[in-house]
Amino acid sequence: MFAYTDLRDELSHYLSAEKVDEITQAYRVAASAHQDQKRFSGEPYITHPLEVASILAKMQMDHQCIMGALLHDVIEDTSISRDAIASQFGEKVAELVDGVSKLKQIKFESREQAQAENFRKMMLAMAQDIRVIIIKLADRLHNMRTLQALPQEKKRRVALETLEIYAPIAHRLGINHMRVEFEDLGFSYLYPLRYRVLKEAVQRARSERAAFIQSIETQVKEKLQEVGLKNFEIKGREKHLYGLYKKMLKKRLSLFEVMDVYAIRIIVDKPEECYLALGAIHSLYRPISKQFKDYIAIPKANGYQSLHTILIGPSSIPIEIQIRTTEMEKAAENGVAVHWLYKSTDKKAPYLYTNEWLQDLLDIQKNTGNPIEFIENVKIDLFSDAVYLFTPKGNILSLPQGATPIDFAYMVHTDIGNTCVGCKIDRRFAPLSTRLKSGQTLEIITEKEAHPNPAWLSFASTGKARSNIRHWLKNQQSSEAQALGKRLIEGALACFQVSLKDLDERTIHSVLKDLKLTKIEELYEEVGLGKRLAVLVSQRILDGQQQLLNGKTQKKHPLLTIKGTEGLVVSYGKCCYPIPGDLIIGQVLLGQGVMIHRERCSKIVKVKKDPKQWVNIEWEVKVHGEFQVPVVLDVINGRGVLASVAAAIAESNANIVNVHVDECDGKHNTITFIITVRDRSHLARLMRRLRMVCEVTRIVRGK
User: Fold this and answer.
1) 104: three-class secondary structure by DSSP
2) pLDDT in tens, 642-664
3) What is the rounded (10 degree) CA torsion for 170, 176, 178, 184?
4) Interval 582-631: pLDDT, tens
5) What are phi and psi of 436, to 5 degrees?
6) Is 172 exposed, middle or buried (0-12, 13-18, 19+ CB in 10 A)?
7) Cβ burial, residue 204 (10 Å; 0-12/13-18/19+)
8) Active-site amino acid positions
9) Cβ contacts of residue 660 below 8 Å, gap of 6+?
């Protein structure tokens, strides 16, 4: 069993006696608090925080972080409060412990919601102090090492969560040794049979090929000495089991094909020696084209730096080579923790890259109300390799694999994303949905009056872009719902020849109090979104102000007139495609607003039976915008007929949204166009023009 004396000895190698004494006091408090508690394995509970602290001590984390590790479960599992920790060990230690603790005092609707909220709390605490997540990673690592004591179902659930969240976080923070252990342990519990088979096969291959690897290392060593390098180290590098497993799945390779690659890491003193070593090994073996990557000049998103190349070695066997300095090697293994290890002032230090990511997390949180949506957005950023792009001024931005110009625009600035209307990739216009590739130069085109398009959500890939788009759309929907709700209430009151201006404030306040609302805007929004009916709300208002009804009779006024500019809260049925000039009716959709149908639409029959589900509406005299409508044509099959019809539609100032062709027989086709028109008169002119096309034998408006 791990004892505190072992931890103290480890700490004394790099911390002062005074700081070790502070840690000792934290250990005593933790040991006393957990003295009657046991783990699933039957061991005293204090062994867990001791092991967590030991993991961090091996990373040479600072004394506050070690104290936070020893105390990380006392708020959650004992009677010791956050205030007690703050008074005895300081506010910083209390913040670390509180950041790692779960939210036990809040009741959640589901396990998923609880996990998402706990994750969000931890990530936001991490944004204030990165040591929160380092403690949590060490906590999860020891739990994974001792997972065998748990029931089978819980083992699989914890292993999956580790692979989905904690391993990617460790990778994002550049803490490679944790990531590798997370992935291999998670793999072993999630797929134990696959893990065992793969492990045995790798061990056999390793023993069979040891001599071959040794000969390659000898040749590389001699070549490096030949070019004048003296202080260097050569390491044989093996892919960990989960990495091999993922490669087999992704590339559909056999184990033999995956194992048939040898990897060597060369460690030198200075960055310029990395390039000297690269030239030496390229002269020794032939490099594979397009397989060289310079992560020293352009570091990865987590600050990782190294040269990567793949060579064709003896017997045409590929050899993967990584070349880096000693400092880069330490940074690759410890990532953001290198800040505490070496107090690096390098402008490319991993913790500086992490700070940029943490700022993105805060932006995502600010624009995301739902914890489950937040965690999904974070996962998008965690599970991505990077592409490296240039701004027109030559600055480099890193984005996840699969990112689009929309993601790039929001990465530059939220306002750039919100007003984006187009882009140029390598000086050529390109769609905003284009998947970006490393090395491209992007220029974003903006307009002050532009705004996000809901369709962007279908191809935006970063959490920052998606959360900002959703945030804008929610705010836009809210303002549009308020405007619509006010018009609906005005329309309902107009039936009694009453206006909102006629109502006194006491009546409005009383109605809001009854409905448990604080502002009239909230009432407008709920009516606009269909959560309350304008007729019932207006009746409730008038019940409190009966004098306004004296001598006034109810008239049949439409509750709403449609202008065509209502936005997200008014939609148009795809079942009947209403356009200005049609007799229409509005279907109230809970949480979505009003959907417009033609009065004779078959889908509105059942709705009409329930007054709560529909509202009486009509078109404004002047309606703005264009509206979709299907037009069905029977045509004689011939060369150029589709072009002739499309030309006629264009001549009529209409636009084709979609087209579908059905073959009737060998001589005739039925073509269905979805086109946009301004109103019924525009549609009539269009149909008259289409009848002039000689190949058209029949034309009708579709449903």
Assistant:
1) coil
2) 889 999 999 999 989 889 888 87
3) 110
4) 999 888 777 677 889 998 888 887 777 776 677 788 888 888 888 999 99
5) -85, 155
6) buried
7) exposed
8) 76-77
9) 671, 672
